[in-house]
Amino acid sequence: MLSILILINPSGSIITLHDEWLYCGAEHYYKVFNSSHDFKSGYNYFKRDVFGIHWNSLIWRVKFKKLGHRDDLIYTVPSKWMLERAKTSIILKNSDVRLLPNPIDTEIFKKYSENDLNLFRKSMNIDDDSFMVVFGAISGSKNKLKGMDILKDAFKKLQSSILDSKHKKIVLVDFGGSTADQHIYGFRNISLGYIDNEAHLAKIVFCS
Question: Structure pTM?
Answer without folding.
Answer: 0.72
